[in-house]
Amino acid sequence: MSGGRVGAAVRQTEIPMLRAYRLWFEHTRRCDKGCKGVRKAQDGCADGRELWGAYRVARIGGVS
User: Fold this and answer.
1) 42 vs 51: CA distance, rounded Å
2) How many whole angstroms separate alpha carbon 52 and alpha carbon 9?
3) What does the alpha-carbon distance between residue 10 and residue 27 come to, in Å, rounded to a whole number?
4) What confidence category does residue 49 fall into, taking pLDDT thresholds of 50, 70 and 90?
5) How far is CA 60 from CA 18, 29, 33, 55, in A?
6) Average pLDDT of 4-17?
7) 24 contacts 51 by C-beta, under 8 angstroms
């Protein structure tokens, strides 16, 4: 069994809260609509706020 296969299997079982945070974080780095450089997620664009809301739901154990 190679190390690459083990890594791929682990990647598929990403924790929902961490996945939601990663999606929001990646969005803020690419966003040209106002998410770059804001201090609060609430001050970003509509897509960024939606992704942050999904993260918050996942963080408290809800379904995202």
Assistant:
1) 10
2) 27
3) 23
4) very high
5) 12, 25, 28, 9
6) 69
7) yes
